[in-house]
Amino acid sequence: MRLLIEEESAVKAYVRRLVPTWHDVEEIVQQTSLIAWKKFNELDNHEKFGGWIMTIARFEALKFRRSLARSPLVFSDKLAEQLADAQGTIDASDADRKHALENCLQKLDEKPRKMILAVYQPGATIREYAHQQSRPEQAVYKSIQRLRQKLLDCVKDTLALGEGS
């Protein structure tokens, strides 16, 4: 059950790329969960659960799409799979960038890291941060601008070297 919960958001995101509405996604994820629950004992290696449940979700989504095939507004299965695969590549790329950014943040000294994390908290503003630190707002903007550039350069270098994943 824990494995299913851990993979649920990834399964939903994948299925959403294959079907037209969130209602359809919920139906397919529910069906996928039932099948996974019933066939869990057939899975030899639990470390491969993510790929296994994605395969089940793919087949369930394609089965659903075949039931919609009479509609002229539905993509072919092949095109839908190509779009989903392309999105999967984009998602992996996003994950690599996020991992690289986290690594680059850790490389910053403590004070700059705390500053950048503070101003990017939900609802936070540079104005509030500057006031809390008794610093001129423009000075904080300049510092943040330099830090963002430093992080961008670090992320680009990290990804170019293949260290992001």
TrEMBL record:
<comment type="similarity">
    <text>Belongs to the sigma-70 factor family. ECF subfamily.</text>
</comment>
<keyword id="KW-0731">Sigma factor</keyword>
<keyword id="KW-0804">Transcription</keyword>
<dbReference type="GO" id="GO:0016987">
    <property type="term" value="F:sigma factor activity"/>
</dbReference>
<protein>
    <submittedName>
        <fullName>RNA polymerase sigma factor</fullName>
    </submittedName>
</protein>
<dbReference type="InterPro" id="IPR014284">
    <property type="entry name" value="RNA_pol_sigma-70_dom"/>
</dbReference>
<dbReference type="InterPro" id="IPR036388">
    <property type="entry name" value="WH-like_DNA-bd_sf"/>
</dbReference>
<dbReference type="InterPro" id="IPR039425">
    <property type="entry name" value="RNA_pol_sigma-70-like"/>
</dbReference>
<dbReference type="InterPro" id="IPR014331">
    <property type="entry name" value="RNA_pol_sigma70_ECF_RHOBA"/>
</dbReference>
<keyword id="KW-0805">Transcription regulation</keyword>
<dbReference type="Pfam" id="PF04542">
    <property type="entry name" value="Sigma70_r2"/>
</dbReference>
<dbReference type="InterPro" id="IPR007627">
    <property type="entry name" value="RNA_pol_sigma70_r2"/>
</dbReference>
<feature type="domain" description="RNA polymerase sigma-70 region 2">
    <location>
        <begin position="8"/>
        <end position="70"/>
    </location>
</feature>
<dbReference type="InterPro" id="IPR013325">
    <property type="entry name" value="RNA_pol_sigma_r2"/>
</dbReference>
<dbReference type="GO" id="GO:0006352">
    <property type="term" value="P:DNA-templated transcription initiation"/>
</dbReference>
<dbReference type="InterPro" id="IPR013324">
    <property type="entry name" value="RNA_pol_sigma_r3/r4-like"/>
</dbReference>
